[in-house]
Amino acid sequence: MTRIFSGVKPTGHLTLGNYLGAVRQWAEVDQHRADALFCVVDLHALTVEHDPGRVRRLSRHAVTLLLAAGLDPGRCTVFVQSHVDEHARLSYLLECVATDGEMRRMIQYKEKVARERARGSSVRLSLLTYPALMAADILAYGADEVPVGDDQRQHVELTRDLAVRFNQRYGHTFVMPRATYPVVAARVMDLQEPTSKMGKSHDSVAGIVYLLDEPDVVRKKIMRAVTDSGQEVAYDPESKPGVSNLLEILAACVGGEPGKLSGAYTSYGALKKDTADAVVELLRPLQYRHRELIADPACLEGVLRDGAEKARGMARPTVDAAYRAIGL
Ligand code: ADP
């Protein structure tokens, strides 16, 4: 059976980008067709300035939202990365096959370094080695597929390079993973800055729809989204990034293709109103289920405990084999 691994970082509240680009596919498709693991990757949240209590809270919050989005622990494995030691154990071995040059070439590294410097923070070494930990997340489970948004393309490519190199040098140990992407909304853009992606750890709250935003907040954010000069509603991400982003979001919510949907609109206002309504409807069941889940904290503890135990059992044989293969 195909094995799938994917994760989400507890660096902020989950966004519409996380949902449309990743989590919805996990819940609606992946957990039903494969042996799937979904992980809240809290070690990755320590690569930039963080508050310990906030990371702990956000990890639990993220697991609760994944369950609210429809992940079923009876069908898939939901867990927190730091609860399973194998990730850090394997990451170190992968740092020993990676080069610093290939780590420095990562676009996300460059972007995050710029952001940290702009904030006046120093850059943590773990930000550079982040892709080795991500490769460990994937390779420890022998994942065949890694469903991700477009922003993770380069990291999954690097994971494949590391797997090939390790296998060639030390004998076949790792399964070769491949990234899979959603057909629409692989890259949901910030509503206020439609040339950068909607990211949960960005500072501009007005451009981000969070999964637990109340309907009136969702409407306000979408109605105030930056559009483009001109009045024609057309799908053209290059010259009309704002309008195209709204069309992508609408298409992801109601089905269809962004280019075809554009024909139904003669004004930006109508497009925004329909997009806002569609997002509110999309989030309604998730928000309802979230309220039920937070009323039952014992259920979350059980999910976390069982998830970690299952994940550990799957990762340990591969990571032990990697330790033996490399000479330890
Ligand atoms: P973030 O940038 O919000 O911190 P994560 O690194 O936690 O995101 O990513 C979790 C998943 O959500 C990944 O598969 C990632 O590709 C996807 N994702 C994140 N932001 C977006 C976006 N704006 N559009 C589409 N997918 C996204």
Automatic annotation (TrEMBL):
Entry-linked SUPFAM superfamilies: Nucleotidylyl transferase
Function statement: Catalyzes the attachment of tryptophan to tRNA(Trp).
Motif 'HIGH' region in this chain: 10-18
Organism: Streptomyces jeddahensis
Subcellular compartments: Cytoplasm
Binding site for L-tryptophan: 137
UniProt: ATP binding residues: 9-11, 17-18, 149-151, 188, 197-201
Name listed for the protein in its UniProt record: Tryptophan--tRNA ligase
Catalytic activity: tRNA(Trp) + L-tryptophan + ATP = L-tryptophyl-tRNA(Trp) + AMP + diphosphate + H(+)
Keywords carried by this UniProt record: Aminoacyl-tRNA synthetase, ATP-binding, Cytoplasm, Ligase, Nucleotide-binding, Protein biosynthesis
